[in-house]
Amino acid sequence: MIRDIQPRAVWEMMEADPTAQLIDVRTPAEWHFVGLPDLSVLGRNIHTISWQLPGGLINERFIEELRLVGLDGSQPLHFICRSGARSRSAAMMALQSGFETVFNVADGFEGPLNGEGHRGSVAGWKKDNLPWRQS
User: Fold this and answer.
1) Strand pairing of 77-80 and 3-5?
2) Which pLDDT score is estimated for 8?
3) Using an 8 Å Cβ cutoff, are 23 and 46 in contact?
4) Rounded mean pLDDT, 68-87
5) How many angstroms separate the CA atoms of 135 and 128, rounded?
6) Backbone dihedral angles phi then psi of residue 29, each to the nearest 5 degrees
């Protein structure tokens, strides 16, 4: 079962457990133009591994790429995307592939759309004023 965890609670879990990891499954364009969670104050880096490739195809190497960055299933893994949908799918695949402790970051980096059709003002990592950076 995949638990949805609010961004602030994810941050607290990351602070409390130095083995906990954050995997951003968005696209390179999103990382570059929208920004990334910043874990530097925790002395860690975020793992950027896209769940979907250009054209919307699922990254068939996703699990392999998780392992290539040193994730072996023993660490708590928190998956984040824009709003929580892609990260939930990625977390499910990780769980099915033997990663034992996986979480979905509820509302993701930008959260759901507001009444005006914009993201970032309702919920999510940025709305919670958690550390992030933009390249």
Assistant:
1) unpaired
2) 97
3) yes
4) 95
5) 20
6) -65, -40
CA distance 17 to 51: 25
Q: Return the CATH number at 31.
A: 3.40.250.10
CA angle, 7 as apex, 102 and 131 as ends, to 5°? Answer: 115
- What is the Cα–Cα distance from 107 to 125, expressed in whole angstroms? 8
| 79, 105 contact by CB (below 8 A) | yes
pTM beyond 0.85: the answer is yes
Average pLDDT rounded to a whole number, residues 18-29 = 97
- Residue 18: φ, ψ to 5°: -65, -10
The residue range of the domain holding 79 is 3-133
Report how far apart, in Å, the C-alpha atoms of 4 and of each of 9, 61, 74, 101, 117 are.
10, 24, 19, 12, 23
* Number of compact structural domains in the chain: 1
- Residue 120, pLDDT > 80, answer no
DSSP assignment of 29-62 equals: HHHHHT-EE--GGGT---EE--SB-GGG-B-TTH
